[in-house]
Amino acid sequence: MPVLNIAMIGSDKLAKEIAKSSDQRDVHTYVHKENAEDGSQRILSLIRPARFPERLPPFLEALGVARAGFIEVKAIDAALGEALVAFSSAGMERGLYAINPPDDGWVDEEQVAALIQQAGLSSWHRVEVDGIDIREKLMKMLDEMLPELTAEATLPLIIPIDQHFNVKGIGLVAIGYVQQGSVSVHDELLALPSEGTANARSLQVMDDDVQTAVAGDRVGIAMRNADEAWLSTGAILIHLPTPEKNIEDGAPLPLASTSATRVKVEKNPFQRRQLVVGDVVHISSDLQFVVGRITEVEDDYLDIKWDSPILIRIDGPGRALLNQLDSSPRVIGRITELIQK
User: For the whole model, what pTM was predicted?
Assistant: First the structure.
């Protein structure tokens, strides 16, 4: 049951025309399910940060999970520019936009198209403000992306946890998006950075009990022998290394904890700010949002000391972004190299 997660900047009204409202948190989610011709089920999941541009972290959370984007353009303003910058920096090559000004407003269509191009989103397509048509185009996009979405399920497991709670008769439940890999009932899991170990007692996806959850799924994991303290802010679940797949045998953990990194940043086209030693910055990576301070600038590289340890991917930066909350736009750009110091 492949899922396409779409980060959406737009109105609740249009989102509800595309999919059914599902969850209301810092990010609102909307879900649409369809059966394909081969009998399999396809799922669209819109992830909408309800308080953007007032709050940036929920939008960064949506970008970290999504594999496509959608913007409802109400006006040409700073918020639109920042949204375009963020989508581009996150490498969101697939996306749609619709121009939908207020009843008494007007938006220059050519100017919007030019901004889309300048932001590096030339592969995005304009659509009409029609929920059914948008849904059909997103479903077509899902079908086109099936090979890459399937490939993500073969990678080492990474599940950042954004909610956890105790359920009577079930125990501790951890909830998060499967960023990559897959998890099955009875799998042994390792919570980082605490290094607590637990067993996946049962799994739920979209309120259905399942045997396996794969990349793209928002999964609830009932955890046997788990401690709630392991699932604090920034916790990430991976598979517990087995004797056949441990560090000594050449299969290291997919994540490493560090308080200092060297990063290389590909600035977005609209970012003019020059970063210097002493600047305060934030990294967003796998639902982590951590503050740090630049300690050295050398050519295109920045050395950063983080206020608290972060978990970074061993095989590359993933979808990590560097941000500065007093900049305009607040997203500095994509992190192309992220090296533990």
Answer: 0.93
